[in-house]
């Protein structure tokens, strides 16, 4: 994959605008619920967004919404989502009022998607007479720079600014942007006769926007900070292990001879910022939880699993995976959305977001793939133990089911969905977890669920630590499973259930980790002197000055 600097700049500017629109939509839902006298249940927005995007993905968009439908985050279908209505009713809202709130939210989302599509298109090709959007006092956010940020809160030294000084800075910036926009328009008109006006105007627009969205990266002892030098309040923390993991994933995806696969350090940091901003804007860290590396080692050893059907650059264990946001994640190993993939063979792990509609669609897609496969195919499916959910019934009755077991919530844990910015990687499971193995006939022969003890011990030894998270964790793999298989070599056979249960138990957090989750400061910012998970709230108190690893000049 070739990474173009201009495309990276456009992606960054668009992502900042998208995050602003998402925050506005969240605010719309919260304000509507408060006005109705109730609070929406947790994850209402996340479930609504996931259901809407799933419906758009599985149903061809109408011609009137085809442009807006291309956005990965913002729903463009203004239809009322029955699931969201049910969530609001569960929170205490009357059904009719809930339907009205959801309808208004859908219309606002469709408008936001169209606005973002227009803004993104304007970055690529502007008519010479069109003023620069977002620079000449245009809309799209509440901030003076058109990004939706509320302005500059720090000066170059990182010290706080008074309100009066902040207003002066905003005023000077607004005047400068208007002057630059007028100059860009003149340059576009003057250069049109020479054939290069549109290109010059596009370049000028990108330069002006990028100047307002310069990514600044600072390294601390325990984490790396990503922020915008323009002074926006978005500051994202990434631990060093995940920072190196993203670098490795990019090198593997983009090829080339450089350390990042030929991608410049500046572009690498811009792409990382886009990923961090994207997954922060959609939140729902509970939907981003993943199996621990020890469990993946067992799956690799037993079934040669090398692909995750639902993952992200931040929580993936395999270097190849399907993502909900393939356009943003493609530089970090994502190969598309799971529901768009049509593999003819292979071994996969599927741990979807715990949303009923998504899980039902996943089961239907897996069944279709298994029926149409021309080679051996296997799926290890991880779902919550919701016995009354339609997806559970479909999995239990599947003709492809080769194995199943239920793990009690107290007997296992997962990698935290916010592991990239937490001190502790693991968290206890909220629900019992069902593990299903679905295989076609050829898959059963190639990857048997039950092995001899000798074969199991050999497979587990070979599968130990073979994943892309080596920079994140020391991956003390299924040593207990290997030892147990060797010790029980007299036994005739062993099911994958035995080592997989043990591996899933390795992700149970310790008592110290549990206590740390109960307090606010549990991220790396707390260790480095800044409280909170998403942004540093206190001056850095670590020894020495903060080291900038990319000034991005």
Automatic annotation (TrEMBL):
Q: Which species is this UniProt entry from?
A: Stephanodiscus triporus
Composition bias, Gly residues: 135-146
- Every copy of the PCIF1 WW domain together lies at 265-417
The record ties this protein, via PANTHER family, to: MRNA (2'-O-METHYLADENOSINE-N(6)-)-METHYLTRANSFERASE, PHOSPHORYLATED CTD INTERACTING FACTOR 1
Name assigned to this protein: PCIF1 WW domain-containing protein
**Taxonomic lineage from the root:** Eukaryota, Sar, Stramenopiles, Ochrophyta, Bacillariophyta
What Pfam family does this protein match (any one)? PCIF1_WW
Q: Where in the sequence does UniProt note compositional bias of the Basic residues kind?
A: 163-177, 535-546
Q: Where is the composition biased (Basic and acidic residues)?
A: 518-527
UniProt region (Disordered), positions on chain: 124-200, 514-553
